[in-house]
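Input record, target 12 of the design panel.
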């Protein structure tokens, strides 16, 4: 194989990150045809296909994603070196792109990212997407990190994901403060109305198990997968809800809701998903380490 041309690799890196050749050509002040030719030359020299076209977008091939991991390492470190040589300090700012499930508790997300707010040299963006789009964002290096309450398999040899449990929150029965039931479940709950998460959620499974243990049939008035909607229904409906108290911590503090009792040995688990890569931003490693205390 011919000696690697780092100018061509840099052009590849910029296109891979942006996903748009036209945009990168404009930013680098070169023609699209010249840029395209140099990418083809890089592919020829490396004897691999780095991109495939999908409409107007360029999508990384499997080999392209592997090459991007090395390019990330090379050019991110290069930018740090340039900043150090010019200013005697490391790069002034670091940015994290974080993807979250739309149904995830906003209070959990806020708590997770709160350490970043105390770092003046760090900025971040939060993007809500469906699970498949989140994983695609990781694969294409649009996202540095994904937060979810759905575990995914990462136990195969070639799995691209690194899955880390960053928190677990106890589940509880929550309801209006003035109507609190003081007796242990299911005593006193015979006429209760319920607002519950969807049937395929971890929370609902735990509650169904509790009901089956006591042969209790809940009167379900509404179901919602979205934690923000579940929070509103719990606050305004007068019905009982099953969720992590952290979701309604503000309502509990204001005296609108109260935790009636915890579900025994029942938790909602939260996961951080990253992708295997050569270069991992220092701020991301620190954030994942701090998350163990959530």
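The sequence produced for target 12 reads:
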């Amino acid at each position: 194989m011919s000696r690697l041309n780092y100018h061509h690799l840099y052009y590849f890196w910029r296109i891979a990150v942006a996903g748009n050749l036209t945009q990168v050509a404009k930013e680098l002040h070169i023609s699209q045809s010249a840029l395209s030719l140099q990418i083809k030359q890089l592919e020829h020299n490396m004897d691999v296909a780095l991109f495939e076209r999908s409409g107007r977008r360029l999508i990384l091939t499997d080999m392209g994603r592997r090459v991007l991991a090395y390019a990330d390492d090379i050019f991110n470190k290069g930018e740090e070196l340039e900043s150090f040589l010019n200013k005697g300090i490391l790069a002034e700012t670091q940015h994290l792109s974080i993807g979250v499930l739309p149904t995830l508790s906003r209070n959990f997300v806020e708590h997770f990212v709160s350490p970043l707010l105390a770092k003046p040299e760090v900025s971040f963006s939060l993007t809500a997407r469906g699970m498949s789009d989140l994983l695609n964002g990781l694969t294409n290096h649009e996202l540095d990190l994904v937060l979810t309450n759905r575990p995914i398999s990462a136990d195969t040899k070639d799995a691209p994901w690194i899955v880390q449990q960053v928190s677990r929150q106890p589940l509880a029965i929550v309801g209006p403060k003035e109507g609190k039931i003081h007796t242990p479940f299911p005593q006193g709950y015979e006429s209760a109305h319920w607002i519950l998460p969807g049937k395929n959620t971890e929370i609902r499974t735990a509650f169904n198990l509790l009901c089956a243990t006591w042969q209790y049939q809940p009167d379900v008035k509404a179901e919602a997968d979205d934690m923000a909607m579940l929070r509103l229904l719990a606050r305004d409906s007068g019905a009982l809800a099953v969720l992590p108290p952290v979701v309604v911590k503000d309502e509990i503090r204001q005296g609108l809701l109260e935790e009636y009792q915890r579900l025994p040995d029942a938790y909602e688990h939260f996961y951080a998903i990253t992708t295997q890569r050569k270069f991992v931003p220092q701020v991301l490693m620190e954030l994942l380490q701090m998350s163990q205390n959530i």
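Strands lie at 51-54, 57-60, 94-100, 122-128, 145-148, 161-176, 193-196, 219-223, 240-243, 257-275.
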